[in-house]
Sequence to fold (789 residues):
Amino acid sequence: MVGMNKKHEETDKENTKDNEEELLKVKEDLENQLKRSVADYQNLEKRIAGEKSSWIRTANKDLILRLLPGIDNLFLAEKHTQDEGVKISIAHFIDILKGEGVEKIEAVGHDFDPVLMEAVGTAAGEEGKVLEETKAGYKLFDEVLRPAQVIVGKREN
Amino acid sequence: MGKIIGIDLGTTNSCVAVMEGGSPKVIHSAEGRNVIPSVVDPVTHVVGDVAKRQIVLKPKETIFSIKRLMGKKFSDESVQNDMKWLPYTIKSGRDGMAVVEVEGKQYTPQEVSAMILQKIKNDAESYLGSKVTQAVITVPAYFDDSQRQATKQAGEIAGLEVMRIINEPTAAALAYGLDKKNAHTIAVYDLGGGTFDISILELGEGVYEVKSTNGDTHLGGDDFDQIILNYIADQFQKENGVDLRKDPQALQRLRESAEKAKIELSSAQEAQINQPFITQGPNGPLHLTMTLGRPQLEQIVDELVQKTIKPVEQALKDAKVTVKEIDEVVLVGGMTRMPKVIDVVTKFFGKEPNKSVNPDEVVAVGAAIQGGVLGGEVKDVLLLDVTPLTLGIETLGGVSTPLIEKNTTIPASKSQVFSTAADNQTQVEINVLQGERPMAADNKSLGRFVLDGIPPAPRGVPQVEVEFDIDANGILNVKATDKATGKAQSIKITGSTGLTKEEVEKMTKEAEAHAAEDQEKKAKIEARNQADSLIFTAEKSLKDAGDKVPAELKTEIEGKISDLKGILDSGSKEDIEVKTKELSESLQKVGANMYQQQGPQDQQAGEQPAQEANPNADGQAKEEPVEGEVVE
Fold:
């Protein structure tokens, strides 16, 4: 009998210990969860504060990107017609864009730079130099909006 | 406690996502895009968009489609085939494995892939603002052990501990939570930039098992672009006798036009192709102008779309399942945005496919979820409910004033200060409302109670704070407190979120249907409330100013007050507004008049708006009880 009682006591003790462990685990889990949520939230807030200023600056980005093909066509018209009126229109357009922080990437005569330009072809000429620009590229507040499409020089071998 | 990122290391493009606040978020590249082209210049370590821009210039030094070589022997038939069209040099390296050679140096596919992963890791770190050391990477379901091992090594070279390699279709299924939905047999249709894969998965013990895969390693968006390009060029040639494909510059613009038209026609019925001065004809410049309709496009690409069906049939056959046994279909890859593709898939399976997650991102999203599960984040994450409908109270004129807007994540609480609508009003009734309609009568009343014992005061002076508190179980506590006496009354509502889906839908629909007339009704009541408060202000001003107001002006104002009162309930919104404006103008004369008499320092009364502002209250206690201030 005594032995049995003792056994009972032990099981009870074990049970309590098990329960305690379980509770501790639950508590730990919950704490972990809470910390994670709060951390995620705080990080989000920090990031939003940082992103907000860039959002404001680049809110026009999509619209400007969609306008660029229109300007591309004006450039082509100018190239083919050599019309003074078109030239003035382009200058005006570029001026407006400048006011919005858009800047044309200068390519012709410069070294090819894949960060700012996309090579669409090669031609005989000075190795690595941009010979021709087939489509103008633009930056918006120093961020590449659209790379310039260029033809790059290659030494004939 | 670093985050485990999920990476879709693709043949054409790669994508990365991470769990944040319990939901997956795609991380944009440093170039601001949601995907990174899987293109590498191994000599200069340039990766992604920037590497892609120099392909024409350095065709032998710029590596793309490296995934096709991962874990493969040089002698492998597919490698031998790919060598025919890949512009860079492929050689047999150690143990006969395929390697690429650039400027005399050999690079294993693992090393090249590692450079892509390295960029992904860097971009993720700069987004998260912390170190990233662990990742889940996806591979096609048909990848063998050697290919999986190579992918894992690539991760390790990039400094990432690869927690798990999972199958791309499995990741897509995870992204849609199909395992939670207990979808037993699913089909994942993946039409990407350069490859087509179909996989049949079966759920067993909570994990998806791949039953069969099939596909076409050289069928994808690029083929669609090419076939559209050819169509446009053929049309142009028919009309102008010039083949645009022979002029490299024209070809470049044509390629862009074809891709743009393809994308536009996924949402629009018609796409305009406008490329002036595309080339020089015998009689001067030629312009490409064309309208491409969706039916036309669908005709052009029909053959390509149909080409995907055979592998699908084969995969079903191999998995020994019938079309009817497929519980869910998942679409992956940018090409599955095309309505024609969706149509064909829907028709074949006889059910709507899952397509709500961006198909370019869905695999990375699934990988991130797997990462979240491994990191203990997903399992632990609390699933928080939202309030399906707006909760608010009724205010002057039967208007429903929202306190907690619909779709607010709960638990949430909000309080707002209201005031009385009449002089010496000693009690307010709080009618708790649920619904989207602007008028209280059209919304559901969840309960009401009265707060009394408010000390008699002019209208607008007492401050009654109404607090809404909704706990995680959707139990709403509404408490009204008179700030002067501290007397409070409250109600507990248990059924605030207990609406069936149908009820919520019905109420939302009703709100939409009645939006215009409701707005009109509300505007009228607002005009009436404004008029009412102006009358109150005018009467008070006249009383306060006493005989300082010339008799003539007093009569004028009194006349206008009675005019306005006369139409307050019967007049139209416009009439009330006109009369309100008239009264307001006359009232301004009182102030002007008094300034003239007493000098500008004295500002006892007659200012516009003449309010009994309560200076030490954070709530402005305007005369309109509708506009309490939020005090939080």
Remarks:
- The beta strands of chain A are 102-104, 117-124, 130-135, 138-140, 143-146, 148-154.
- The mean pLDDT of chain A is 84.
- The radius of gyration of chain A is 33 Å.
